[in-house]
Each structure stands twice: as C-alpha cells, then as structure tokens.
Amino acid sequence: MLDYDKEAGHYDASRGGEARAAAAAQALLALLPDTPGHLLDVACGTGIVTRRLAAARPGLRVTGADLTPAMARMASARLPGAIVRADSRRLPLRTGSVDAVTTVWLLHLLDAEDVRAVVAECARVLRPGGVYVTTVDKAAAHDVGSDIDAVLASRPRRPAADAAGTVTAHAARHGLLPSGRACFRGVGQGRSPRDTIADLRRGWFTLLPPGEPRTEEFATRLAHLPDQDRPRGDPSFSLCAFRKPTAAWAGLLPRSPEGKAVR
Question: Which of 67, 72, 172, 217 has the most CB within a 10 Å radius?
Fold first, then answer.
C-alpha cells in the first residue's frame, strides 16, 4: 500500500485535482438527502471533496475523518475545525449519530476483512433514515477498452474487495438497503502506455511484483504500443448508496424463521 504521509503533498495533482473532485462531489450530492443534518466523510484524505460537499450544502454539518497525519493536516487547512483523525474501522462517534456517511476511494485499498469492518462501522453510526454512499469497483473503472487494457487483459488479478455485489451484501447484513447508484468521470486520469509501465515497475499492480520476468514481459508489450505519452480514456467511477430503514418501515418487513427482517 502507498505511504499516504509521503503521497499527501502531491496526491491531488496526481489524481485529477479539482476537476475530479468537482465530478465526485456532484455525483455524491445527487445520492445524499438534501436536508440539514450531519455528514461524516470517512477517509477524507486531503479534504478536496469534503470541502465541496460542505460548500454545496450550507445546512449540512460536514465532518471529515482520516487516519494519516499528513492527509488530515491538509484537510484541516481546507475545513478548519471539521477534521478528526480516526481509523475507519473504529469510528469515534456514537451509534446512530449521523445522517449520512461517505467513503470515496477507500474500500478498494482494504482487504476483505477490513471492508466488512468499515461497512459495519458506517452502518453503526448512521441514524435510521440515514444514507451511506461509497465508491465501488475501483479497479474495474480503469478498464476502458483501450489497447493498454488489451495488453493487460491476461494479468493476474485479486478478487475485488470493493465489488458492488460484495459491498451490497455487507451493507445488507447491517440493515442497509440499496437506494441509488451514480457514476462520474475521473477527469485527467486516462492511462498512457509510458505511465502504465512506470506503475507496473512501482508495484501498483499488486500481483505483478517489480523486477519479476512476467512484469517485465507486460512492460515490454506496453512499450511497443503507439503514442506512448497519449492518455487513453478517462475511467468512470461508480457509486452505490444505501439507506438505513426507519424503525416504522423496518417493522413492515417480513420476518425469517429466526426473526430477522427479510429484504
């Protein structure tokens, strides 16, 4: 995993900057209730998206949380007094204390056990009627049907812990019901062959370790593609939203023999 303390200073510029943040915030806002309340942005990073959420909804109290000190400092500069350091698996909030929770570009960084823990925590801190919105299928978003993707099609892949179906199943275990989906463009994030070779050699493709013969085989094939510095298509990122039912609505659900609500 990346060292996000070291990455913080150039994180935004290397990942689409304000244009990508604007696209992400717009898509998130379309899935969040347009009512006053408290929103928690978990793993808020530099706060580049969090700040836009707060600016767009003046009646919404927005809090950002991030575990990495350098990221939290940058976010605090953007939203003074609204950022806390916290582990997304153990949020320092009371059960049922917030109206909305977001996790943007977090779940794909985690292993399967930690994804389950994060979804559980987000569900725990939500009030009945609250909404949880998260990015899903992060790795798949970068497969845009380009010649680079054709070269990399046979590469080994890990099962995606942030797959939409997997996250939906975790959410259901904690009483959250699907309430919407959206997508947004990762502005300025299209891969070029040369950049992809560099990512391979940095170890960003986790099952292709730097220096191994198979890694270099893919690098050689990428080096033979035309237009080495031309970015291919931008990725399209996906969002899933889930709502925690109110007590009255949950009471209308049919029950299983064990007494659990059936959704």
Answer: 72
4-11 and 69-78 helices, crossing angle to 10°: 30
- Residue 21, domain member (yes or no): yes
64 CB-contact burial (10 Å; exposed 0-12 / middle 13-18 / buried 19+): buried
DSSP letters for 33-64: -SSSEEEEEET-TTSHHHHHHHHH-TTEEEEE
Q: List the helix and strand counts (H, then E) for the chain.
A: 11, 7
Global pTM value: 0.87
In a domain, 89, yes or no: yes
How many separate domains does the chain show? 1
Residue 96, domain member (yes or no): yes
Alpha-carbon distance of 207 to 220, in angstroms, equals 17
177-185 vs 236-243, strand pairing mode:
antiparallel
CATH code of residue 182: 3.40.50.150
Give dist(CA 143, CA 42) in Å, integer.
Answer: 26
Per-residue pLDDT of the chain (263 residues; tens, 9 = 90+): 556 555 645 555 556 567 889 999 999 999 999 999 999 999 999 999 999 999 999 989 999 999 989 989 999 999 999 999 999 999 999 999 999 999 999 999 999 999 999 999 999 999 999 999 999 999 999 999 999 999 999 999 989 999 999 999 999 999 999 999 999 998 888 999 999 999 999 998 989 999 999 999 999 999 999 999 999 999 999 999 999 998 644 444 444 444 444 44
Is 202 inside a domain boundary? no
